[in-house]
């Protein structure tokens, strides 16, 4: 089993993503992520500016951000975003006022500002996710300097 599979499955389970959902999205993630990449985060999310656009699943590794979209009515899957982290700018994240959601925003290389809201169980989960995001994005800036 490759590194991606070994780290993706526990991250998906930690996020509470059901196995059938993981199985549907996995072929898309496999095409986008290298087998030697470590999964940092898996989560179901929504786009705050487009609440009726369906569900999204976000996968973050130390090198890539991949987001898939599942339409509401027909449950069709499509790749929404697949980018190397070095092609993102103005990456930010913050908890929502409820303290049980975390909003992540980044500007892609094409200039489009992407925003995703991850629903988490509690404030402790928000804190842990904040730590992971700091680890990935602050380490990336340190390497670039």
Helix content: 25-40%
Q: How many DSSP helices?
A: 3
Largest sheet: spatial strand order:
4-3-2-1-7-6-5
Give the termini distance in whole angstroms. Answer: 34 Å
- The number of distinct β-strands equals 7
Global geometry: globular
Q: Give helix and strand order, one letter per element, not per position.
A: HHEEEEEEEH
**CATH topology category name:** PH-domain like
For the record, what CATH class applies?
A: Mainly Beta
Question: Beta fraction of the residues?
Answer: 35-45%
Instruction: Compute the average pLDDT.
Output: 89
How many whole angstroms does the radius of gyration measure? 14 Å
The total number of structural domains is 1
CATH superfamily: Pleckstrin-homology domain (PH domain)/Phosphotyrosine-binding domain (PTB)
- Stretches where pLDDT is under 50 for at least 5 consecutive residues are none
Class by SSE composition: alpha+beta
Largest sheet: 7 strands, antiparallel
CATH architecture classification = Roll
Care to describe what's here?
- With 145 residues, this protein is α+β, with helices and mostly antiparallel strands.
- The protein has a single domain (3-144), classed as PH-domain like (Roll), CATH 2.30.29.30.
- It has three helices and seven strands.
- It has a seven-stranded antiparallel β-sheet, with helices on both faces.
- Strand 1 (39-46) and strand 2 form a beta hairpin.
- It is globular.
List the helices and strands and how they pair.
Elements: H1 3-14, H2 19-32, E1 39-46, E2 55-61, E3 64-70, E4 77-84, E5 89-95, E6 101-107, E7 113-119, H3 123-144
């Amino acid at each position: 089993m490759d590194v991606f599979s070994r780290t993706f499955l526990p991250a998906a389970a930690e996020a509470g993503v059901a196995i059938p959902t993981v199985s549907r999205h996995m072929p898309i993630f496999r095409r986008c992520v290298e087998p030697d990449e470590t999964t940092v985060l898996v989560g179901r999310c929504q786009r705050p500016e487009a609440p009726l656009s369906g569900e999204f699943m976000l996968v973050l590794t130390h090198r890539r951000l991949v987001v898939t979209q599942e339409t509401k009515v027909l449950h069709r899957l499509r790749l929404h975003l697949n980018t190397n982290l070095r092609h993102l700018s103005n990456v930010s994240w913050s908890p929502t006022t409820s303290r049980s959601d975390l909003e992540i925003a980044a500007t892609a290389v094409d200039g489009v500002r992407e925003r995703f809201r991850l629903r988490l169980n509690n404030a402790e989960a928000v804190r842990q996710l904040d730590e992971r995001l700091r680890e990935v994005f602050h380490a990336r800036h340190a390497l670039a300097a």
